[in-house]
Amino acid sequence: QRKNTPRSHISGTTGTDIEIGESVRVCVRSRPLNEKEISSGDTSCVSVVNPQTLQLNLKSGSKNFRFHQVMGENYTQGQMFSDSGVHILLDSVLDGYSGCVFAYGQTGSGKTYTMAGVEENLGKQDYVSNETDGIIPRSISYMWQNMTRRKEQYYVKAAFMEIYNEQLRDLLNPSSGVLHLRWNIKSGFYVENMLIVDCTNIDDLIMVLHEGIRNRKTSSHELNKDSSRSHSLLLIHTISEEKNEDGHSFKKYGKISFVDLAGSERLKESKSQGVMIKETGNINKSLFMLGKVISALGDKKKVKPHIPYRDSKLTKLLMDSLGGTSKALMIANISPASAYVEETMSTLNYATRAMNIKNKPVIQVD
Ligand code: ADP
Q1: Predicted complex ipTM exceeds 0.95
Q2: Domains of the chain with bracketed CATH
Q3: How is the beta sheet containing 53-58 ordered, strand by strand?
Q4: Cα 110 to ligand 1 centre (Å)
């Protein structure tokens, strides 16, 4: 596993500086109330106190939560992209590091909207004019613009898969059935027989995104599964060649994973861990284990707990992108509707645990 060199000080676009040692940037985004909620007389239980503070209004009183960035219901996709700070991650990917962006939240809270946008509009125009485009098409465009500005030559490859019921499937090649995760010392965990597509321009990458989203829908229909229970992972690899002072060339391998997580609605915090793991079972084992990994990484105790990366497919795949010296961006999506206040509270608590993750140069893995 490569090590990222910690940066001394990186500025976000919002004026919130990311200090040394923060490896996860946590943003919370609330969608607007939808028509159904408005017509049923539901009201918002969420207010943005300032760009870093969100207030949740409960019957028993209100509670404030602090994050790196709070995005209220009027946030456009463009503002979301700029204030998410994802460009920091994308720049470091082009420098040869790994990173991950993931959307967490209950079904219907806006994860897919935030990650991909509105599918029908994807790639129709340049993202600057296509307001509905989410963080993935905007990131693709940002990366491409910056690759062409840099002096080195870049090669880009992409893969798109999904985890459902702890089974991995290739969203670019659905006929390949269930895929297996393997491990070797050189590359760590990798997916055997996964289709990896060479992308020579932006359109190739947008096509990968389209194809994956389309196959995710088709396969959920054909296999009669609930797509809100699956995680989708788009992996983009960048390979560039550079010469050092002696004239020797060396390759830099960057990797970014965009993860649209399964709906978090069953991960009720009030339940005991035993009940929770049983209830979530295989369907959400990966989501549950991601929470455990995040909690363990954020543990403030001196003696660091064991980080259970190897206990689910998702955490194995994200092992080199979470903790250690990699950078991650979590977008916690919430609905403002009072009817979902419990789910929202649970999402905000999960996001708060991710806020505690600090950069750890040495991580003990099983
Ligand atoms: P999830 O992926 O979490 O299940 P979706 O992204 O599918 O949720 O969002 C549910 C619905 O809400 C979609 O119709 C989506 O277009 C809409 N939506 C989500 N977030 C926003 C937003 N910030 N602004 C406007 N509409 C949104």
Answers
A1: yes
A2: 25-355 (3.40.850.10)
A3: 46-50, 53-58, 61-66
A4: 4
